[in-house]
Amino acid sequence: MYEELFIAGSGGQGVLTLGKILVYSAMEEGKFATYYPSYGAEVRGGTANCMVKISDSFIYSPVVEEPTMVTIMNMPSYIKFLKKFIPQKFLFLNTTLIEEKTEIIEFLKSHAKNLEIVRVNATEIANKIGTTLVSNIVMLTTIVKRTNVVKIDSVRNILSKIFSKKTLDINLKAIDYVMANV
Amino acid sequence: MTPTKFVKPKSLKQTHHSYCPGCGHGIIHRLVAEVIDELNIREKTIGIAPVGCAVFAYDYWDFDVSEAPHGRPPAVATGIKRVLPDRIVFTYQGDGDLAAIGTAEIIHAANRSENITVIFVNNTVYGMTSGQMAPTTLLGQKTLTTPYGREANRDGYPLKVCELLSVLDGTKFIARGAVTNPKNVIQTKSYIKKAFIKQIENKGFSLVEILSMCPSGLHMTPLEAVKWVEEELTKFFPLGVYKDV
Amino acid sequence: MTTTTKKLFVVKIDKEHCKGCELCVVNCPQKILVLTENVNKFGYRYVEVIDETKCIGCGRCYIMCPDYLIEIYEK
Amino acid sequence: MKKILQGNIALCEGAIDGGLDAYYAYPITPQNEVSAYFAEVLPKLGKVFLQAESELAAINMVFGTALTGKRAMTTSSSPGISLMQEGISYLCGCELPCVIVNVMRGGPGLGNISGSQQDYFQSTRGGGHGDYYTIVLAPFSVKEIYEFAKESFLLAEKYRNPVLIIFDGYLGQMMEVFDTESDEGKLNVKIDEPIDKSWVLDGTKNRPSRKIHSLLMAEGELEKLNLKLKEKYDKIRRDEVRVKFYNVDDAEICIVAYGMSARVSLEAMNKLRKEGLKVGLIRPITLWPFSYKEIKDVTKKAKKFLVVEMNLGQMIEDVKLAVKGEAQVYFYGRSGGSLVSSKEVIENIKRIL
Prior knowledge:
The complex is a heterotetramer of chains A (about 180), B (about 240), C (about 80) and D (about 350).
Chain A: E1 2-9, H1 15-28, E2 32-37, E3 48-55, E4 69-72, H2 75-81, E5 90-94, H3 102-111, E6 116-120, H4 122-129, H5 135-147, H6 152-162, H7 165-181
Parallel strand pairs in A: 1-4, 4-5, 5-6
Antiparallel strand pairs in A: 1-3, 2-3
Helix pairs in contact in A: 1-5, 1-6, 4-5, 5-7, 6-7
Chain B: E1 2-3, H1 25-38, E2 45-48, H2 57-60, E3 64-66, H3 73-83, E4 88-94, H4 95-101, H5 103-111, E5 117-122, E6 125-126, E7 132-133, H6 152-155, H7 161-166, E8 171-178, H8 182-200, E9 205-211, H9 215-218, H10 222-236, E10 240-244
Parallel strand pairs in B: 2-3, 2-4, 4-5, 5-9, 8-9
Antiparallel strand pairs in B: 6-7, 8-10
Helix pairs in contact in B: 1-8, 4-5
Chain D: E1 2-6, H1 7-17, E2 22-25, H2 32-41, E3 48-51, H3 55-67, E4 72-76, H4 78-93, E5 99-104, H5 120-124, E6 135-137, H6 142-159, E7 163-168, H7 169-173, E8 175-179, E9 211-212, H8 221-239, E10 243-246, E11 253-256, H9 259-274, E12 279-284, E13 286-288, H10 292-298, E14 304-309, H11 315-323, E15 328-333, H12 342-352
Parallel strand pairs in D: 2-3, 2-4, 4-5, 5-7, 6-7, 11-12, 11-14, 14-15
Antiparallel strand pairs in D: 1-8, 6-13, 10-12
Helix pairs in contact in D: 1-2, 1-6, 3-4, 9-12, 10-11
């Protein structure tokens, strides 16, 4: 396998954490994985992003150029990144915060014939579960459920290692909800 | 024949120094050495020599001494003291080293209250490079680079280091002495001793500014230089203890 | 009654390295230090003691000598 | 054991495992994770962490700790390393061991905060004033960053000389899974004689006083030091060159690249090999001393070389010196913090062939 993921949103949406959980989970499964974040003054402007690569063999560059999957969590990122990072397989959109533009959808389809767009009401679902803070986990679970890029049990394992009990509970609740309902 | 207390301290090497006739550095070197001997700390003292006339201080003192880049002795001393906190670490700096190129280092070492002692020699002139203006040069004072006298609107004002550092919470002992006559020398020695004791007691940053003579840089005879420091310099840079907490 | 004997001091001056700055000369309360007309190997006129018996051992010459060339011993 | 670490954090862990005693630095992107990590961890280990007021102060604090024989390190990025050059020159002149890390960003001037390899000249030509060199290590993976940091203190102490570890911001920022138990990336520094510590300043108890200085005014003294340093540098040139070859035996064209450029070039090489093109890769690990002889040997078979860098042509000068006219040397580079892509490298190889 070889997947290149580009994940973008605002700093507060936990997109960097989302990426990190993915690479930790990949490591748990014995895979090669790299993670490369936006950093410094770059993240002050309202958008944060990270690049994740997961593979069965050594990964050369951590920088994503031809993503297989792109995840967009907010409107500024939707406008800013989709021209440059055109997903070849999946595009995940947080529809709570994104108002889709037909010209962007057409542009993407003309450049990626087999693209599947997965629309998730991530922020709203997170709010329903108890806090918008878990919108990244709602999105992550959707990605994992739809693509099997890593196993959901690996994600659960990693979360139990990095989160405190209280944070863990609400995040696991988010995973369970999405696995059952979305 | 029994030695009185007026014999050369152990912490000075037998070497003769190369300072000009009447230069205050020699007196100050000896005072530091005497204090170190009297406090019995020679075996654990590490000194930092500056860039300037005292650059060769490591050839004159008989304890461990290193050089440092111009202005950086407080940073070098910090690097020593942080890993060897039980050693006695001091810097010996001139007015150019401490108050011009090394202003950032001295202020931050003082503000961190690094537990070091600073011996700051102020003779208002850059001796080694042949007598240019120093940050502490008096208004109106003629130097190689202020041939018509220092002017405030062009060159700024003489920098008052003791006054400046005293307002920082990190400084624990700040005093200004002079080496112009026996009384001043004895007083200055007591300041130096107090400064080292502060360090021994882990109280934090201590500094002694010493008004000194640079007859060559001032273009005076040694005795004229003494008179000038006593009569002119001490007016602008009053002697005494500025802080002792 | 006890008789107090006057203490006698030896003033050792390293003339060869003296630079003739006179800081000792002007600070000697007994006025027994003078700058000679002779010069040492460096070409400096150097300081000598003219009447050691008058020395009171106050140490002011030692204190002021920038070249630490003066030492005082008790006889 | 598998582990995942950011390059900057691997550097910290390597330094700690290598016996770091004190760390001083001033913040600058893209290496701020290093200070943050050390600030939290070093005090718990009884080691020194201090945020300096400037890079000038930081390198001189390193100088102070190095004087005592303890293991000191500082890290920065390009503009900060420029400020440190004065101190590095003094460290070399005084023959003090320490480790300096440059997580390179784009320049000149304030440039940008993206990764680059624009400091090759500065790193390999001394950098400051005077006739000196620092040993320059260029890791290309998170594992190598860890291993190099760990062994760099030994290397520095062996020669009483600063060791510079340089890598671009991409390597510093990226996280990567690696195997902690593998021998991959180890420098295997050989210590033939016990490390000499008879010069350290730690108080003159039971021994004569010592002095450390680089000011040598007496006639001939400085030249004597320069010649002594040269002898040391010649020994380093003889014994410490490290370079890695990939498929060079039958290669008709060889890429020469280090750090992140080498990773990208490796990908390009593998893709081109699948197409049947005889491409090899030479990856210098020590940028100083440089692998002149080793590269010259490759010219027996390969007659074309492509130097790939994240600058507009710096290491290419050393490659040209190495091949001594026996092969043609081409260049491809991206500058200003841009990363070369494997696609671009492939295009350039095909253009040359």
